[in-house]
Amino acid sequence: MASLWKVDDEATAELMKRFYEGMFRERLTPAAALRAAQVSMWQQRRWHAPYYWASFVLAGPVQSKRILAHQLLQVVHGWNIGLLNSRRALHFSLLEEKTARDHFG
Q: Within 13 Å of residue 50, how many CA atoms lie on the same side as its CB?
């Protein structure tokens, strides 16, 4: 997603919250989720002006929701490793935890 102009941080956070809720709770496509988020903001008095919601557009290839969810978690948690590496790191982390429990009781 890209913004065509600088938008208020609070409005951006609100739009992103609605966008991801649409994708993951309502199982909408990214395009439908963005439209639903924009329409819902437009319908509220506080966010009615297009300045708050109209600058956002989708860019790039559409990816599966599963990959998008994983990438979102990486951003939220500040992870700095790729998808494959994060899966390996998680696997090794769980394995190390199990080994430590088995060894130290």
A: 4
